Here is the input.
Amino acid sequence: PFLTRLARAMESRGYAVRIADSVSAGIAAVDDAAPAFAVIDLRLADGNGLDVIARLKERRPEARGVVLTGYG
Here is the structure.
C-alpha cells in the first residue's frame, strides 16, 4: 500500500514514476533505464535495497537516491 501511495503522490507532483517491489525488479528497472532519482526501501523480500543503489550508481553515477524503511 505504501508503494502505491508514494507512487501516486510523486505522479501528482509531475514525476514519471516506475515502481519495483523487489531487489531483482529494481535492478532490472535500473538496467533498463537508470533514473536520475530513486526512492528505495532498505529491506525488500528478496534482499537489501542497497544492492539497487549500488547498481544505480554503476549505471548513473550522478543519480540521487533516498533510502527509507519501515523496519523497526
The chain has a mean pLDDT of 95. The CA atoms of residues 5 and 11 lie 10 Å apart.
